[in-house]
Predict the structure.
Amino acid sequence: MVDVRTDILINCPRTEVAGYAANPDNAPKWYVNIHKSQRLTTGPLGTGTKVAFTARFLGRELNYTYEFVDYVPGERLVMRTAQGPFPMQTTYTWTDDDGGTRMSLGNTGSPSGFSKLAGLFMAPMIRRQTRKDLQKLKSVLES
């Protein structure tokens, strides 16, 4: 089982942080390992939106699809893998904090097969990576 949560204070309004982070077109700009994102559904972002991502992890290129399962603009976004190497859920939450926005990024999943073995060392790697991702997001939005 992987259950990792990290957060960061970003000195920007919550609507700006949430709007930018929730837009999958921006993912390659702030996720260090994601180099491609493509919406698979049309229309505004919302429950049912599907997005294909291409990322590098553990030296391998991974292709996976996330589906928005819960989206409250400016408050939270919950996505689950609809297709990919292992089942994962990613949760973003945004709250007002000290004149800025506290963004929390959580990843939970239950890897199986080879991924189950990898799961033993995935949590610390995911924690390290999400800290880098949030730091990059902070840098992008505050510049």
User: Anything to note?
Assistant: The radius of gyration is 15 Å. The longest helix spans residues 114-142. Helices lie at 14-22, 27-30, 114-142.
